[in-house]
Amino acid sequence: MDLSPGALLSFFTERVKANLHLVVSLSPLGRTFTSRLRMFPSLINCCTVNWFTTWPDEALEMVATTLLEDIKLEAPLLAQCVSACQYFHHSVQLLANRFQEHLRRRHYVTASSYLELVFTFRQLLMQKRQAILTLRDR
Q1: Which pLDDT value is given to residue 27?
Q2: How far apart are CA 23 and CA 50, in angstroms?
Q3: Chain centroid offset of residue 133 CA
Q4: pLDDT tens for residues 49-78?
Q5: What are phi and psi of 41, to 5 degrees?
Q6: CA of 132: how far to CAs of 61, 126, 127, in Å?
Q7: What CA–CA distance (Å, rounded) separates 50 from 38?
Q8: Which site among 12, 70, 85, 116 is 20 to 30 Å from 93 CA-CA?
Q9: Average pLDDT estimate for 68-90
């Protein structure tokens, strides 16, 4: 094997091309995404694009159930909390559509929004439980 600087650089470059994989996450919202695509056309030409669509109700239910199951709620109460999270998410989607129709401005309600809702609900429930336990133990 040739150990000259040029050969080493060539070897390194080949190895990087063969083994380096990147995940780039970009939001398609707004002008920033479009301008980046124009500045870097390889983002379209040389990449695999995965678009995520809205989640069906079954997915929303499964995600919320999974995220809330370890906070020890009785089954009927857990089902009600999951239904409430789904209801909130769908309500916000409807309001976002009305917002678009009336004000001509988009507000995107994504799967990330739903996850944030469930995480916030979970955190709030745990904080309230802790506050009640603290008051009880006084």
Answers
A1: 72
A2: 11
A3: 33
A4: 777 778 899 999 999 999 999 888 899 999
A5: -65, -20
A6: 28, 10, 9
A7: 19
A8: 70
A9: 94
Encode pLDDT of 5-35 as tens digits.
Answer: 999 999 999 999 999 988 877 777 778 888 8
Q: Could you tell me how far CA 115 lies from the centroid of its own chain?
A: 7
Give pLDDT tens digits for 98-130.
999 999 888 888 888 999 999 999 999 999 999
Tokens of 27: 């939001």
Separation of alpha carbons 138 and 97, rounded Å: 48
Closest by CA to 116, choosing from 57, 55, 64, is 64
pLDDT at 52: 74
Tell me the torsion sign for CA atoms 86, 92, 96, 97.
positive
| Sequence-ordered list of residues with C-beta below 8 angstroms from that of 60, at least 6 positions apart, any chain | 85, 86, 89, 114
Tell me the C-alpha distance between 69 and 79, whole Å.
10
64, 88 contact by CB (below 8 A): no
**Residue showing tokens 């906070």:** 71
**Are 96 and 108 within 8 A, CB to CB?**
yes
Instruction: Round to whole Å and give the CA distance between 107 and 109.
Output: 7
